[in-house]
């Protein structure tokens, strides 16, 4: 199997938070192929943890033999993986009626020399931290983000709104799902953050950037983010995956 990760370091951490009875976040890193996948089970639905696990397992299984494809094809492959994960979640709900209504977000990222390719469904986020600046690369698929984009409310109002978790796209809802894909440059020293909304609902981007700037290792940075979200209330499960291109 071809390896793409001789200069990429990874760290991941998931925590139930302070208010949820179980952890419905799931992540997996395919280190040899420089790929990370994260899913957040839809809160309030039966089987959110099941949906997240199925989504990650199916996406990884479908992607593994295809990650050796040319970099120009990988954005399409990530979107196809999201479609396969969606079908798997729907099929599981059909087999077991107690799981009807379960769903999940999905975030996928692949690193290649000088490039980062990604795709997302839902409100799990991907950030790039470079030279002290934090840039959000994904767009939240939420009603609030639609209102922000339409100029109806500000980003700060959206961050404080009580219904910020209402998704406009997720796995397990419809037979078809559209993932947003993107590609950006990747420089030596860049730090990538994949996270569930349990982090971003508790900490704003400036706070996240400050915690990333303070840590000496990826493990310390991941722990600081989770601890910070818990100190701020820990209302949801918190998952972070970090990757650094050295």
Automatic annotation (TrEMBL):
What region holds the PPM-type phosphatase domain?
Answer: 7-245
Identify the SUPFAM superfamilies for this entry: PP2C-like
PROSITE patterns attached to this UniProt entry: PPM_2
What GO molecular function annotations does the UniProt record carry, in alphabetical order?
A: protein serine/threonine phosphatase activity
Extract the InterPro entries matched here: PP2C (IPR015655), PPM-type-like_dom_sf (IPR036457), PPM-type_phosphatase-like_dom (IPR001932)
Q: Which CDD domains match?
A: PP2Cc
Q: Which Pfam families match?
A: PP2C_2
What PANTHER family does the record point to? PROTEIN PHOSPHATASE 1L (PTHR13832:SF827), PROTEIN PHOSPHATASE 2C (PTHR13832)
State what protein this is by name. Serine/threonine-protein phosphatase
- What organism does the UniProt record list as the source? Pseudothauera nasutitermitis
